[in-house]
Amino acid sequence: MDIFEKRRSIRKYTDQPVTDEILHQLIEAARTAPSGHHTQPWRFIAVRSEEMKKRIVQADHNQEWMMSAPLFLVCVADGYVRLKDETIELNEETPYKEQKLVIRDTAVAIEHIVLKAAELGLGTCWTGYFTQKEMKEILEIPKDKHVVAVLTVGYPAEEPKPKERKAIEEILMYERWGK
Ligand SMILES: Cc1cc2nc3c(=O)[nH]c(=O)nc-3n(C[C@H](O)[C@H](O)[C@H](O)COP(=O)(O)O)c2cc1C
Known about the structure:
Layout: H1 2-6, H2 20-31, E1 42-47, H3 50-59, E2 71-78, H4 80-83, H5 97-119, E3 123-127, H6 132-139, E4 145-154, H7 168-171
Antiparallel strand pairs: 1-2, 2-4, 3-4
Bound molecules: flavin mononucleotide.
């Protein structure tokens, strides 16, 4: 359980940079994630420049605290792996079920990164308070992709207390819903 208990959303980071070696370890963790039909739709853009970080923060509901993180990982689901049509635009209104499937698989890989980061002593925070249009424009992401998250990554400069969790009895049932 250690790593699960250690993981917290971190919103304040030290100046220590995240090296390419660490970045590769995080992406290695993502690579091992399971995915439907082994489609591996996850893609990642590592962002370190102040200029790009600022633009991303603005699009992510101006969450200023994000700027203290030395690395942003923009986590993208590639709809093309299932839809095979680069003219299809994925956004909040898209009706295709394939979009949900690639987002689902990418979310699994993101959580692998988050847990690997905790193991390495890094902090992360998943953010998702943005629109597809704005984020895709900033990062020049093609229309048939969907930005699932912007993860802030860095060394924690805070130790947030664990948040209350729902009790097991509230979330676990046996044999049938409600039992
Ligand atoms: C899909 C998703 C989106 C989130 N978006 C944000 C966000 O935009 N800003 C933020 O500060 N935290 C965000 N969070 C972090 C949650 O607030 C946090 O996980 C939750 O409060 C539980 O706290 P903990 O992660 O420290 O256990 C997000 C988490 C998830 C899973």
